[in-house]
Amino acid sequence: MTRNIYLGIDIGGSWLKGMAVEWDGNKPFHSLPQLMKALPVVKVRSRLAVDATSDDFIGALNELFNRLLQEGDCVRGIGISTAGIVDYHGTRLLTASKHLQVLLEQGWMDYLQNSFGVNVTVINDAEAASIGAASLGYLSGNKIIGVMPVGTGVGFSVSRNGRRWTPNFSLPLLGCIYSSDGYYDNLCSASSLAALDDEGNLCNIFTKSEHEVSREKYIKNLAGAISTAHIIYGVDKILVGGGLADALTSVDFPLAKLLMAELKKESLLTSSRVEVELIPEGNLLPLIGSVLLAMGEEKAQSLRYQREYTDFGTEKPYAETLCLDELSSTDLIRLLWQAEQEAGLNLEMSVSHIATVVEKLSAKLADGGRLIYVGAGTSGRLAAIDTVEIACTFGFPREKVLTFIAGGIADAAIDIETRFEEDASSVPDLLYANLSEKDVVVGISASGSAYYVQSALGFARSVGAYSVLIQEEFAESLSFCDTVIALRSGNEVLAGSTRMKAGTATKKVLNFLSTSVMVRMGKVHGCYMTDLECINEKLIKRAESVLKVLFNLDQEEAYRALKQNRYNLSQTIHSLKGNM
């Protein structure tokens, strides 16, 4: 019987580890990580060294496949994790340490694609571990969490409120930071520590008395790396994984407790201290992450919808004979004003579709789901504005509304995409967020062509989440999403500049969606926002005004009630209702 197999491969300097997972779509996607924990991990020598060749590594891959696969297996996708910096599209390694230099060559990737004819996606091992950690529930909540796999060196990945954080389009390279004693990669290397034992056994280092001095020095070094990460990246919590976590979990060594004690000795300038936790899944995390990545990418690719550039209505001019550069300023502004009015009026034809989405979205949020916006360029930035303002306007939990922007969130407000980010997949981002069937993904792409958006919707649909596309043109149905909201904004006065009419219409649709959903969620009484956050003087005055209207209070009474409830408007309203 043919098995549909997804392969996860973790490439290390010494070992090549693999996992084969059978999935035909019948099992719920969210149940797979727990099932993977019970699956066997195959381990072979990677044959990587400074003088290794592509053929050496391909030989190791073949040995791994011979042990992983059965005759007749159908490989549907391959996810690969490795140390080093990977390009944003997940197609190749950009930099690697000396003993992994052969991975910079294209030969082994070509071999995999030619042998299996499937999508092969590469990801940094710390990011793969973070995806694995997210799938097991370790990255939940409105927190900044660092995942630190410790093995031969120190990997590091940061999740900010369920979104991966990559400043300057790169990893936070904690292991490459240099202190007076050396690089953290060397100071915190679990492999180097294990080499101090006659048997090369890391567990002996942490259980035998003769290694006490080395053990204490190592814990101080690791605490130093954690302290640095806390200060530089602002992390609230660090999850230690990798081979170090595997070994210490097996002997029940209280590393997290000792690290926390060491960190308390330091005089930090930050207002809080970082929490440390050991992840028992350790080396299994990057394999789980790689398999989930292979599955997600395969589903997204299978639903991809490609159109010819000539079919894009967003690229056609408002009027071909129009010469903007010959108009007076008054005529130019009048023309732009007229066009913007059209963008709003044409939305009337989409009201029923927007209302349908509001009802489904409200039900999903009430059931514990999240609203997740996905966009590239202007679309993503408009969504980010809505995301930020929902929390302070309606007091809605920040972890329940997220925005993902092509290129990452770190510099999205000030940088435009310059590296084909719109054409990359958003599946890794959504895996970081641990997308589930409870969630709603709203993708925004005026042309409908951005693969970053399409891949999000296709993946969302494959895991059972409700998926909505906001685009310019009306479409009855599309394979990669459940519902389409048409902007119908028409051709742009400046051909192709969808930050204009399409952007105006997009902002209106987002306003309609989020405001209506918050009304449905009970965040509004009459025409007043009753759960707003009192985070500045203006909002405190607004809250007082709401209390005056709702409870017929004077200014002083409203202020006193608000102050008694620590400027929490919702709590104040409940308190006043209870006293009526």
TrEMBL record:
Superkingdom of source: Bacteria
The record's SUPFAM superfamilies line, in alphabetical order, gives: Actin-like ATPase domain, SIS domain
A Pfam family of the record is GKRP_SIS_N
Statement: the UniProt record of this protein carries the keyword Zinc: no
* Gene Ontology terms describing biological process: amino sugar catabolic process; peptidoglycan turnover
**Molecular function as annotated in GO:** carbohydrate derivative binding; carbon-oxygen lyase activity; ether hydrolase activity
Stored Gene3D superfamilies: 3.30.420.40, Glucose-6-phosphate isomerase like protein, domain 1 (3.40.50.10490)
Q: Where is the SIS domain?
A: 361-523
Keywords from the UniProt entry: Carbohydrate metabolism
Q: Which PANTHER family match?
A: GLUCOKINASE REGULATORY PROTEIN (PTHR10088)
Q: What is this protein called?
A: ROK family protein
Species of origin = Maribellus luteus
